[in-house]
Specification:
Blueprint (H helix, E strand, L loop, with lengths): L1 E2 L5 E2 L11 H17 L5 H4 L2 H27 L1 H31 L1 H4 L4 H8 L14 H26 L4 H13 L15 H17 L9
Antiparallel strand pairs: 1-2
Length: 223
C-alpha cells in the first residue's frame, strides 16, 4: 500500500493508466450487444439507409474500443499470461483491426457503389451470411475467413491464458474463451439468427472491463 502526500492511503492501481482501458472494454461490450438488436437486414436496399451507416459507424467504434480494452486486459496480466497470452492477444487484436476495416468499407464505400456496382455491394452484404456473390469480391472473402479464425483462436487462447494467469475473475475468462468457440455454431445457425452468438462475447468484454476499471482483478502479490 502506498502513502499519499496528504497521509491518505492509496492503492497502487489508483494511478495506473492501464485500468483506464477498462472503460473502452465496457463500452465495446455494450455496443456489441446493442448492434445485434439494431443491425439492418444484410441486403442491397439497406445499404442506402441512414441506419446502415450508423450501425457501421458504431461497429467501427466497437472494434476500436475492443482493441483498446483487450490491450489493457492483456497488459494487466502480461507476465502471468505468458506466451499463450501473447498469441491470443495478437490474433484477437488483428481480428478487431480487420473488423474496423470492414466496417469502414460498409460505412463509407458501399453506399457510394449501390447504383454503379449493385452486384458487388450485394455480394459484400451477404459475405458473413454465407451467401454466394454474383460479382468477384477480390480479397474480401479470404480476409473474412481469416478474421473468423483469428476471432476463434485468438479469443480462445486469450481466454485460456487469462484463466491460467489468475489475475481476472475466472468465470469472466471462461466466458471469453467459450464465446470465441461458440462462433463455430454460426455455420449451423441461419443468418441473421447467428448474430446472437455475439451476446456472450459482449458480456465477457463488459465483465473483464469492469474488473479492470475497478481494479478488482485479484492480482497476485498485491499488498
Amino acid at each position: 500500500m502506498n502513502q499519499a502526500h496528504d497521509g491518505k492511503a492509496t492503492t497502487p492501481s489508483a494511478t495506473n493508466p492501464i485500468r483506464w482501458a477498462g472503460a473502452p472494454a465496457i463500452a465495446a461490450g455494450l455496443l456489441y450487444l446493442v448492434i445485434q438488436w439494431i443491425h439492418p437486414a444484410d441486403r442491397l436496399s439497406s445499404v442506402s439507409t441512414s441506419l446502415w451507416v450508423v450501425v457501421a459507424g458504431l461497429t467501427m467504434a466497437m472494434s476500436l474500443f475492443s482493441l483498446i480494452g483487450i490491450t489493457g486486459v492483456f497488459l494487466r496480466q502480461a507476465k502471468e499470461a505468458g506466451w499463450l497470452g501473447w498469441i491470443g492477444y495478437v490474433l484477437f487484436s488483428l481480428f478487431w483491426l480487420v473488423s474496423f476495416a470492414f466496417s469502414f468499407v460498409e460505412a463509407f464505400v458501399l453506399p457510394l457503389l449501390v447504383a454503379d456496382a449493385p452486384s458487388f455491394v450485394e455480394g459484400m452484404t451477404g459475405l458473413f451470411g454465407g451467401a454466394e456473390s454474383a460479382a468477384p469480391l477480390g480479397v474480401f472473402p479470404s480476409l473474412a475467413s481469416l478474421a473468423g479464425g483469428m476471432y476463434i483462436v485468438g479469443g480462445l487462447a486469450l481466454g485460456i491464458a487469462t484463466i491460467r494467469a489468475g489475475v481476472f475473475p475466472r468465470w469472466a475468462a471462461v466466458l471469453l474463451a467459450s464465446a470465441a468457440v461458440a462462433t463455430i455454431a454460426a455455420s449451423f445457425i441461419p443468418h441473421p439468427f447467428d448474430r446472437w452468438l455475439a451476446v456472450p462475447m459482449g458480456a465477457a468484454l463488459v465483465w473483464l472491463g469492469a474488473a479492470l476499471w475497478s481494479d478488482r482483478t485479484g492480482s497476485r502479490g498485491r499488498t
